[in-house]
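Anyone? Bumping this.
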Amino acid sequence: MTLLDWLIALPALGALVVPMMALPPENQRLIRYFGIAISLVELGIAIGMAVAFKLHTSSYQFVTKVHWIGAFGIDWYLGADGISLVLVLLTAVLFTIAMFAMKGVKDYRAYVGWMLLLEAACMGSFTALDLFLFFVFFELTLVPSYFLISDFGLGASGRAAIKFFVYTFAGSAFLLVGIVSLVFIHDHQTGHLTFSLPALMHTRLPKDTAILLFLAFAAAFAVKTPIFPFHTWSPDTYRSAPIPAVVILAGVMAKLGAYGLIRFNLELFPATSRELAWLMMTLGVAGILYGAIVAAGERDLGRMVAYSSLSHMGFIVLGIFAFSAEALSGSTLQMVNHGIYTAAIFLLLGMIYERRGTLDMKKLGGLQKKAPMFAAVFILVVMGMIGLPGLNGFVGEFLILIGTFITHRWWAVVAVLGVVLGAIYLLWAYQRVFHGELKDDRGFRDLAPREALLLLPLVALIVFLGVYPMPLLARINPTTSAIVHHVATAPALGSSTVSSIVTGGTK
Amino acid sequence: MFGTLVSQLPIRLPAISYQAIAPEMILFGAALVVLALSATIGRREHPELYRGIGLLAALGEGAWSANLLRLVDKHGASLAIAGAIANDGFSAVVGIIVAAALVLTMLIGPGFVRSVAGQGPEFVTLLLISATGAIVMAQADDLIVIFLGLEILSIALYIMVGFRLRDGLSREAAFKYFILGGFSSAVFLYGVALVYGATGSTNLLKIGSFLSTHVLINNGVLLFGLALILVGFGFKISAVPFHVWSPDVYQGAPTSVTGYMAAMAKIAAFAALLRVLTVAFHLQLQYWRPIIIALALLSLVFGAVFALRQREIKRMLAYSSINHAGFILLGVLAATSGGIRDSLFYLGAYSVMVIGTFGLISMIQVDTGKTEGSLSLTDVRGLGQRRPAMAILLAILVLAQAGAPFTSGFIAKFSVITAVIAVNEYWIAVVAMIAAAIAVAFYLRLVLALFARDENKVGAGDALYPVPVRGGSDAGFLQPSRASQVPVWIGIWLSVAATVFFGVFPSLLLNLVGKGKIFF
Amino acid sequence: MVVLGLVIGFPLLGFLVLLAFGKRMGDPGAGWFGTIAVASSFVAAIATWIVLLTKHGSNRTQVLHLFRWFQAGGLRVDVSFRADPLSIVMILFVTGVSAVIHLYSIGYMKRDARFHQFFIYLNLFVFSMLVLVTANNLPLTFLGWEGVGACSYWLISFWFERPTAASAGKKAFIINRIGDMGFLLGTFLVFFNLHSVSYSKVLPEAHQLSSGTAEAIALLFFLAAAGKSAQLPLFTWLLDAMEGPTPVSALIHAATMVTAGVYLMARLSPILALAHAASMTIAIIGVITAFVAAMAATSQTDIKKIVAFSTVSQLGYMMLGIGTGAYIAAIFLMVTHAFYKALIFLSSGSVIHSLDSEQSIRRMGALAKLMPITAWTMIIAWLSIAGVPPFSGFFSKGSVLEDAFGRNELLWVVGVVTALLTAYYMGRLVFVVFYGNARWQEVTHGHDPHESPRIMTIPLIVLAVAAATAGLLNLPYSGLRFLHNWLAPVFGSALVTYHLSSSEKILLPATDAVVALLGIFLAWRLWRRHSERKALEPAVLFKGWYIDTFYDRTFARGGTALAKFSDRVVDPTIVDGAVGGIAWLFRWVGGLGKRVQSGLVRSYLLIMVAGIVVLLAYVLLSAAR
Amino acid sequence: MTIPGSWYLVVAALLFGLGTFGVLTRRNVIVMFMSVELMLNAVNLTFVTYARMLNDVGGQIAVFFVLVVAAAEVVVGLGIIVAIFRHRATVTVDDISSLKG
């Protein structure tokens, strides 16, 4: 059992054990401590992995390969390279924060159980190297998040939960068909039925099939990221789910989409990625601008942050498909940064909601007078989101833009506009909520020590990653430059018809 | 011993290898024993005894089929009873699946039906007889024998559907099922007659060899016959457009009967369909594959879409069963050995799930006191608080039907999709998965209703942090109120355990099903 | 070069300590601590200057490398600071003026509810400004650049209870951000062509750039400078920035931050040298901004608005200097301007302070006798900004005008006219505020305004001395050109020196002096007794040529409309509608299904027979084929 | 002169069509049931005709199976019909439509 197996097995076992703990109501807190304990151990493992990670190699580390379903050539095949490692770290941190943020729940068993299962699924998705295993974990993330959104949500949570599940499930329908088709084409060509990513990378695909497969993969990840036209589920879901769930949904699961694009679209279809780069980058930039504009028009803080994360994910997608080492490293780093400050902003929104029962900007105003500490943390996180240099948002965004400028100049020029739009809607929202006169006579309690403790790690990370991101970058760079090289050197695909696959060319 | 006795008789009997038809004999024998016993010791006294015998018979049949499978592995397949019965891996595996379905139903069914329709042995007998019919259909290598098996199964089901005597809905369902069943059997039979006319034999093997050696000038009659046979099968597996009976019958019939019927009818019909298409009409592939594709796509899409607006759970599950039929048809249309294996896997996984699901629904009906016919979503609302255990188990089974990962449902859907893609039918796979996505919507609405907090009692407070959830009744799994609950819970736990186990370690079932090759 | 680290370290240390213990230090304590931090940074700056003085020639540029900030692909960005003559000049006058203003604000911000927070932002501002001027690569400069922008945002909206202050802060940040787009794109273009962003590599190799790219880079960075130094397209935020406390206006919106744009242009002089067309446009925009702002300043009634417009105008002059290649003249003007403009702001601040924060000049008057020190320091600043000979303004503005004359006569003409206007509107301010009849009775409810406390007047005196004597730094045509030979090695070939004929050398300064005195005389004649003259204060000028209202109507209101439209209409109906539409279609077909299930057995049979017929028809067709 | 087999087939097909039409149109349950039996007998006729044409005994054996099954169906069918219409005056099939939607 290597580190990665423990990484996934631990929370999964935790999720199985928790429902059995039928404790009387008063020491329900024990279950929450149990959840916190497991997520802390996860964090320990993740940090251990990061420390033990060999720096100057882009190959997969901590690899484990065990037979699972012989009939289809499926193995329990896990491995982590720079990108997966960084995202595993992010997942571990955010889950620990989410576990701490859980309160006010009478029956912790279901809550902690689903959270741990979700953690196992996310860890699995980031480290799976077997396409079937990835698909299983990718789908598995839906079940707990559905329950987390619907059972403990508020208002129209049921409907939003179903919309989230069906939308993502439909997206992954294409992914499944794509995976299986690729596997069978590979089987025809090499007679070796396997789902392992390194093996499938050598399949020679004719042009039109490769495009279809690329789009099938991209469809699922586009819904998950979300990319521009497929984002309508995210405002409803982020608004109606409880805060700890949203921290995970926006912070970790949004990265699944982007990670999938890098790991599968770029590595499996390098030539097609080059051809369709213009499409994905246009969608990315459209997402940046559209997300920002709609966010400016939004009256509800929760929905505004959902659209702003659509805009930020637009940057990440842009970076992925710019095919330059700077841009790809920037995107990966930005994934971590986005996770951190989105988690922080949603925790803050949760605290506002708890005090005032609404997130409508019209009903909130002049809060800074009553809660200066709260306002200070809020503005710091907002400045991080805007990409103020010295905070974590800037480094990733700068790398993405400079990388995109080198390869696709005009997309970068338009994307830079996003930098300004970001400032507009975020500062406008901050002003409507914190500046001006207090609209509501009910006081606004300042940060309680418990809440401050919850936000401290995230705020510290926002500042630390802004000033010194090198530890992460040192681990990301080798992998990203290898992927960029892989995409650049892939031979262009001939447009021979599908039949040629069936006859199976010589390997 | 029996063989030698018979051989003295003047009549010349065909060489009967009792080994091959042992499964039918075990079940049918048990049915007779139960009837005889009830006649001698009075109908009402020992209902448990009948269930015991039924259970024993089911287990015996399963063990025998497994033994048959081992023999086939060792000595290869063989024909029995003058070519009427095929004793190959396929029939053995279907035998095992029938046994599994029968065991679960024996555990779950009788408890509820007894509270509704008296203590008599009738229910157990009918179960055993219908199972015999199913096995006959699966093993049959002759169209007429398939018809025979079909009728044994169907007539037993007609009666079981109408079992709740004092309830109008049940009688109406039985009638509808009977009339439409009778009609479709007639159509099926006419098809058999036409095929007989075109090829000169009703034996699948002879038809296959005839068609491979002769080229028919106008194969109109043959194709008409084949089409009508497909209609007969289409009705039985409730594929769209021949599905119209199933929503009403699923709702009207007693819940555990519905579960059994959904499973057994599909097992038998698909087994026979697979054998007919593979053995007899493997050369007419380009004619019947488009029909099967049409049936599959219609069932997939309309099965999912029509369920969206359903408020009554059993009707909703009827449409979901149509959707599942569509998925299994994918395996059939692949017409490869992989396709057969995947269809069998789907059949196995599906029947275990569906019997468990309907078992749980009958438990809920008893719990909510709505024993007559319909059980709507509002009745189920907030079950998560009152009966957390029941709600969680039903949620697992429903999610398995939706295809959630780490359940056999997921592996089933995945394997059938691989079967279709292996024959380059990419677009069908995409439509199938989209239909699955639509289906997820109404599965989730059911799960949501289970766990939603009762609006009236707790009031869905507008707090982002969940309003303190009212504690459910004690988390005790077993309501020890009535002894008859114990086997039901065992049955349900077995089906849930099997669903999750084969989801995580599917290779066991995949290898078993892999042996189910149609030899002839 | 550890002493350079100290220069930057002290304000950072001050910021951190105040952040942690500011509240406990209380009213004056936090202020004094902030001032000491900045003052010690000033001392360290002088020490760095002395260290550099001992060296000469090319090795006057020392680089202090701390650690690698971030690195990916070909891009390597370090946290490294550069001490060369240009940055030394900047850090000297930035820390000097900041120390003085810190001292002043202790008095000005007395008894303010959030006294210590004010000094937290001030120290952070000084730190960011120092990082900006000493950074050794473009991204680190950008860190300083955005840092000062953020601090100005916090300081402008310091009294956030007032909605106007809050939106002014937001407006400033956003308009700066628009400028920063130019900065980013410029950086990318530099990296694209020279494969590095560090000055020590980019500046020496700047000559490899093709002229087209150089033009583009220059214009992009000018866009950033225009945003920060409030030039024509993006200057409106400076007017609203007056909502902030007066020391803020003095420090940030007069002396330091606004000069960042000029510094950046000076730093990138090697690139500008290649971009002739771009330099010309910079010069033209500069002089036009100067003229337009000066005209607008003539008819403002709010004392701080007048000074703000005057700042925009003086910055226009500096950009004129940059555009014509006279970098040293521009920096000389920047330094002297920092002194007298800060002085003007602080003295108007002490006037406002004593008149219980009344800012309109219509309710001031005859304050000279009551507030002698403020009056006299204001008069010194007025004389130097107007360009009256012995004072520093005469020399610095004079050298800029001389170089402008060398480049293109028309620029000089507009420059001189603006100089006249400058003298006039400052004169108007002084006469209306300090002389004429007193109009502050109802403002101060009867008791006479008294002179500001010593803690506020000492900085005034210090700045007055500096404003008066700063001219010595760079006396033209004489041996005493310290600034010139101090900065010359930094600019090297980029510096353009214009050779005027001997007659012009005398004529030009003379015209400057005459124009200055004429402006003063005009102001004296018109505003000696009047406080309001409708003819001379037209609405178009009062409203700042309606530029701000135009921006507000098109961008602000238009933008909100677009945002509201896309949020309320586009997203829900079109994007979500598409998804909702498909879901609705499925539900509608589902509804159809319900109707099919009519419950009638015979209709079921009909459906089945229909199915059979279709099947048979298909089989018939396929059999025929 | 012997009537060619195809004639019988046509008659059988007509009978089958008549049966189907009868099931569709007639409202009386018993008559519908009768029509189903008619369809079965049409099939029997087809079987016998083919058996004669192919002179193979298989067809005739099949007829016996069909007869047996038809008998079983009659028993069960009438049982159900009696159960439903015991409390109703008429025997029209359209009354029983409470299971719908």
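Late reply, but here is one note on the structure posted above: Residues 168-199 of chain B form the longest helix (32 residues).
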